[in-house]
Structures are given as structure tokens and as C-alpha cells.
């Protein structure tokens, strides 16, 4: 029997033995195995269900026999993850194992394979990390130039993952502004599938660095072996799935195109973390692990319940003024709201921000619009017993702004070419590679928070991609570092903000859902899912986002009818039932709402408060996919104790005489009885037929609920609570 040497199970410590061949990194239900011997290549053998005896993997022929970190240059035709040019022009690496290390801490374990080139002073440390109480294993590398002269990195992926070649299907997202995150599922054919983006800043507008791959046929919610992966990097990314009849290999990392990196002597380049999880319970199993991991390890304050907020954007757009803000706060507070967020339009004096054409960078309250200043707004919030938040877009400027006039050199541009401008034909990006600019950006938050410590929430927006690839701060021969150094500059700023303001709630927004990654989320509490607030389209977007990102972080707002983006007219109940499946908020002008809508909102807000922990901290089960064209969509959340649950059902197409599926619930205790409560009846006095019914977990899961007669009308929807009967 082959010797099992390193077992990285939560909380347990096994002394690392330096001489054996096979190493195993395990979580509660999964294992990753590699073979490593001093002076030899390190070999990836297995990633999948938990293995107790390594010999099983070899006896069953499950071992992959592929390098853990294949380098360019020697006789190896497979995909490469690293390519380095040495000072003497040699483009190859010959990496062999030097040693293996393991460290256990309270958050899990860290296993490191130290690889060294046989001749050149290049060392690569390949990390595998586990996270206590999750089935997530992450991996990344450190590339150390131990020589004196600089070397150039042309490829520097975080991860290389060989996957069994069966009938593999993949899940990922694609989209554009206001239509982000549409789910794509397809069979992986031989050749390459690349998921990538190079916008520089708002990198999840088109795609997202997250995916799933099945090992045994079409992807299902409840069954099948699935690996999920996500790259924790908010800059340009590239995930490449290379398939042939023998295997699939996944390479994931920073998108290296136009980003070769000169690494000075004695310097180390650290790649971002790539996190993966494996489940035998289909996509649902993968999602629940990612959510748990996000809440416990990645998302800032990931277990802190979020307030119900009203954002002013769709209500007033740029027409911010004291009276309007007072009115909105008062009306929202009367509906039970907890937090008011003043969006764009509040700043600029020489150039007041009346549209998108000016003022970014001039973060002074516009005296004309808000003569009482932020003080006046905080006063009003206090009077209305709600918290106050504010919008900023700190990485940006407009050519029409005092900032641009004072610091033209702070702008990202190419010196001998015309300046490209974005939104409003004037928007430009600040050069965050420059420490002076980093100080300025930090100062925006710091000044607001120092003067007004009562500010509870900030929405941090980014409405531009990186347009002109040029920095006057970076040396001429280091311009290719720009995409990477920008992100590092941003991270420096965010780290400083978090060190000083750990309790501030911050939302990551990038013209909607342009910045949803585990690279940015460690500094943010939530993300703005999309500028599209149409309830129907949101069902599709939120569904795909939920594959990888947790509900607590998914800002989901009730907006006006007709909807400002799609023009669709949708009843208030449906709009609430959709928004309540994430972090509920509103984005509406209260004075344009009818009394009946306000009355309904009040009840729905109250209901959401009562089930908030179930949605925001519970386990998600997706029941009927909107992408399956079954006429409806349904999902539910269950507490870890299985004593409470919330179920959402949405009718998404409407024809007379339709077939509709039963809603088979999941995640409940089959031996217990549950009482149903209609959370959002249209009429308080006549809840739906299911209200107060008691049904066993077994029936609910095996047979389900017949909702056909409850969803007769167009935009029929249900939000139901289940409570266990002890
Ligand atoms: C972006 C955001 C919106 C809003 C506007 C303000 O588009 O996504 O929510 O904040 O900017 O200009």
C-alpha cells in the first residue's frame, strides 16, 4: 500500500514526513492527491471525493499522472502555466521538487510544494489551502527570483487542474451591461474554451472568473460529480479549459496578455488564489460550499445581516437636493426601511454634478443642492430613525473637474496620443499605480468618515473600463505591468480603508454587476448585481450569480413600474418576491408609489425582516430553473438546523392552459412536519390556500407542492415560510 503522508483534515495535525511520495490534502468530503519526490517532477494525481486510502486511487486507476505546475520550454506538449525568460535569454524552466511543507492553523491547513529549477535561481512555491468546515481547497503560486538580475514572466497562472475526461459539461456566465450574468451551459467539446476578460476594471460585465465542470454528463442541481472553480482576482482573468480525448486541463490565472512582468532579483510574484470545490451533489452542492466559504472567509463581515435600504438613483437620478432626500427618507422610514443611500449627483461646486459629464474627483458637497451639507442629511436620517449611506466613484475623474485641472498627470493616458474618454464623453480613469493617487483615493473615504463617522454605508462605483493603456507613473519599460499594478494599487487602498473602517458597510458596484469576484469581495460586504432592476430579468441573473456568490451579498432592489430598463409593468408583489430572495432593497421614488403599493411594501419589509437570517445566512436549494423553460422558477433557503425555510416561486411565462411542474422542496428534515405561512399575500386578510397548512418534510420533498391554481395570473408569485413543528 502506498504511504499516506500528509493528511490535512480540519483541526488535526499530522507531522509532515519529507521522504514519502504521495501527499493528500483533505477537507471533510474531498481530497486532492499529488506525488512529490525530491529531485523529481511533482505529479497531480487526484481531486474528488474524500479518499481514506491513497492506494484506492491507484488500484481504481483514478490517478491522473500529470504535472502539478507544467512549465514552458522542455519536451512537454501539454498546456503550460508558467513561462519565464532568464537574463541570458533561456526561455525554459525545468522545475523539480525541493521539499514539501505543511502548516496548520485555526482556519485550516496550508500545503506547499517547493519547486526549483535545476540550473537557474528560480523557485516556485505551489500552495494548497483548506478552509475549516468547508469543502473548498484553494491554490496559488509564488514565483521567486532568487537571482540578482531581472527575469521576465510571460505566463504565470495560479492553477493547473487536470480533470477526468468523460462527458463534461460546463456552467459559466456571459453578458453585457444591464444583462450581466446570463447562465451558459454547454457540453465541452475537444479544443479550447476560454473564459476571459480584459476590461481592466469592470471585469465581470461580460464574463465571470467562475465556472463549474461536470465529470459525468449534463449538469444537475442535485446529482452528479461537479467541480466548481473561481479565481479570486478582480483584474483581467483567463480560465482556459483544454479538452482532448485523454483529459481536460483547467488553467486559471491573471490574463497574461499584454501583461508580461519583469521580476527583479530577490523579488517574489504572488498569483491570486484559485478556489475549487468538488461535490457529488451536483451544482447545488458546489454552490452551497462556495456560499459557506464566502460568508466565513471571503466576504467582508460575511455573517453580518444586511439592512433593507432605499437607494436614490432610480428615484431622482442626478436631481439630488435636501428636500427630496428628506422626503425619501421619511417615506422609506414609514415603510419600515432601515438605511437610505444617496447615490450620484451630490457633489461638485465649480462643476456641479448634474449629469455624467463632469465633477468626478471633486468630492465636496454641492452647496447649491445641499446647503445644509452632509450634516443636514445625517440630521434628517436621525430624525427618521434610519441609517445613512453615500455613493462615490473614487477611481475616476472627468475632464471637466477641478481634479483634472489640478492633476492632469494623475490620469491614465498615453502621452503622445489623444485621451480616450468614457461615460459622458468626459470620464477618465485615475492612475492607481501611483502612490500619490492611492493616497488621494484613500483620502476620499477617510475624509468623509472622519468628518461624518455616522456614515454607515458606501457604494463604491466604477463606471469605466481601463481605456488608455498608459501610466505616467510607471517607467517606460514597465508599462506592461499596468493591468496588474492597478489592481495592486486598488488593493492597497482598500486594505487601508478596511484597517481603519472595519465596520463600514461597502458595496462593490461597477456600472451594475461589473465587479463580482472573490478578488474584490474580501473588502466589500455586498455587490450591486446589475443596473437592470426588472424583476423578470433579475430572476435569470440572480439565478446564475447564485451558483457562485451568496444571497447575503446580492443586492436586489424593488424598482418602479414600468421598469426603467425594460419598460415592463410588474405588480409590486412580484417585484418584492424577487428582491426578497437576495439582499432586499428599494430603488424607487416613494412619492410616485400608490398608497396600496406603500401599504404592501410595509408588510413585505416587515416579512423580510422576520426571515432575513434564513435568506442571508441559510443554505440555498435551487428547485426549478428559469433557464429550463418550465413556465416558472423556484428556489428556497433553509437554516442549517432545517427548522425554517423560505420558498420563492415565480411564474415567468403566461399562457392559458399551461403545464406547470410540482415544486419539490429540498434540504428539509423528512421526518418532521412543517407549517406553511404566506409571507406576502396581496391581501393581508386572504393569504393563499397554502397558508397554515401542515405538511411533512417527506411529502414536500418527494411529491412537492402543486402551485398551479395559485399562479393563474401573469406575474403570479409566492413567498412562503416553513416552520418546523417540534
Ligand atoms: C452606475 C451604477 C448605478 C448608479 C449610477 C450613478 O451606473 O451602477 O447604480 O449608481 O452609476 O451614476
Which ligands appear in the coordinates?
alpha-D-galactopyranose
Q: What percentage of amino acids are in beta strands? A: 25-35%
CATH topology of the largest domain: TIM Barrel
Q: CATH architecture of the largest domain, please?
A: Alpha-Beta Barrel
Describe this protein with a few key phrases:
single chain; 726 residues; alpha+beta; Beta-galactosidase, Chain A, domain 5; TIM Barrel; 10-stranded antiparallel sheet; 8-stranded parallel barrel; 38 strands; 19% helix; 30% strand; globular
SSE layout and pairings?
Blueprint: E1 4-7, E2 22-26, E3 30-35, E4 43-49, H1 54-59, E5 66-67, E6 82-85, E7 95-105, E8 108-117, E9 122-130, E10 136-145, E11 151-156, E12 159-164, E13 169-174, E14 182-187, E15 191-197, E16 210-214, E17 226-232, E18 237-243, E19 247-254, E20 261-263, E21 268-270, E22 273-279, H2 282-298, E23 309-311, H3 313-316, H4 322-334, E24 339-342, H5 373-383, E25 387-392, E26 396-398, H6 402-406, E27 427-429, H7 435-451, E28 457-460, H8 482-500, E29 505-508, E30 526-528, H9 535-545, E31 554-559, H10 572-579, E32 583-587, H11 595-617, E33 619-624, E34 632-638, E35 644-651, E36 673-678, E37 694-696, H12 697-702, E38 717-725
Parallel strand pairs: 1-2, 23-24, 23-32, 24-25, 25-28, 28-29, 29-30, 30-31, 31-32
Antiparallel strand pairs: 2-3, 3-4, 4-5, 6-11, 7-8, 8-9, 9-10, 10-21, 10-22, 11-20, 12-19, 13-14, 13-16, 15-18, 16-17, 17-22, 18-19, 26-27, 33-34, 34-35, 35-38, 36-37, 36-38
Helix pairs in contact: 4-5, 7-8, 9-10, 10-11
Bound molecules: alpha-D-galactopyranose (GLA).
